[in-house]
Amino acid sequence: MAAKGACLNHVSRESSDITALAQFYKDVLGFEEMEAPNFGEFKVIWLGLPSSSFAMHLIERSPETMLPEGPYSAASPTIDPKHLPRGHHICFSVSNFESFLQALKDKGIETFQRSLPNGKVKQVFFFDLDGNGLEVTSLEDP
Q1: Half-sphere exposure in the Cβ direction for 91 (13 Å, CA)
Q2: CB neighbourhood size of 55 (10 A)
Q3: Burial (Cβ within 10 Å: 0-12, 13-18, ≥19) of residue 56
Q4: Strand pairing report for 122-127 and 55-60
């Protein structure tokens, strides 16, 4: 039997600099820092969105890990955000899409924009500081 009442609780991101990554998510998407446990051997920062129960857990990268920083790390030839509609990303929705888009431009963040075929929902794709893919959509009904 499938799980009942399942919902998304959090997404985790591993980073060499969780403080800078946390600041990025605070500045760009309005996350706020939440109380987080002390794991001792590694640092974490937990972030939440004030308008939802969604959380993001930023976890200090282990120096022994051999994984790349993100699926589209800075060394990757696919750093162009136009590849994100079919690549790994997480998506957020905002009610102030046009002003949000302007804020990304003001911060010098490279983006790729498009609309769904019906033209009602706008999308913008970009990367966080570690090269993780992000999408933000307008809240208009599709």
Answers
A1: 14
A2: 17
A3: buried
A4: unpaired
pLDDT tens readout for residues 85-125: 767 788 998 989 999 999 999 999 999 998 887 778 899 99
| Residue 27 to residue 90: CA distance in whole angstroms | 17
| 67: CB partners within 8 A, 6+ apart | 14
Structure-token pair, residue 53: 């129960």
Fill in the amino acid letter for 124.
Answer: V
Residue found by looking up tokens 């920083």 in the block: 69
Cα dihedral sign, 112-116-119-121:
negative
- Ordered domains of the chain (ranges, CATH): 10-60 (3.10.180.10), 81-138 (3.10.180.10)
